[in-house]
Amino acid sequence: MAAALAAGAIFASSVSPASAHFVDSNGTIYEEAVNFLVDNYITMGYQTHFGVEQPIKRVDAAVLLAKYLELDLYTAPKTNFTDVPARATQAVAILKHHGIVYGKSDVYFGATDNITRGEAAVIFYRAFGTETLEGTSENSTSTKFTIERYQMIKELSL
Q1: How far apart are the C-alpha atoms of 47 and 85, rounded to whole Å?
Q2: pTM greater than 0.90
Q3: CA distance 31 to 58
Q4: Cα–Cα distance for residue pair 26/28, rounded to 1 Å
Q5: pLDDT value at residue 46
Q6: Which end of the chain is more exposed for a tag (fewer CB within 10 A), N or C?
């Protein structure tokens, strides 16, 4: 999922999920993740390409994550962000409401900025939480995303 989020695009195409075969993801490490996102209507690619090598904007990553988490987009209070396009205001607002994303200031989300690896790491950590992997010490930095954190976020958005 992380590779597809980082490489994905949220623009719709005329490619239906059942027929999505992208020349830039087929046979690569991205194929399974790309197919998951497309099959679940989280994102689509372009006609024949998904865009696995293209950067992703902060706003587009927020939309993908909100769709993946299946958050109720209509329950969040409005934000003061002035740079978020109308198509993404509710996704950004619900993620902000749950403490998953924040802006670069109170009024600037940085919507058109590419998301950095560090920002993505923080967002994934906030969205999914961590737990110690079996067989590692309590002081280990090894972590994994947890279903419990996903369920908690999903329940909060009801």
Answers
A1: 24
A2: no
A3: 23
A4: 6
A5: 85
A6: C
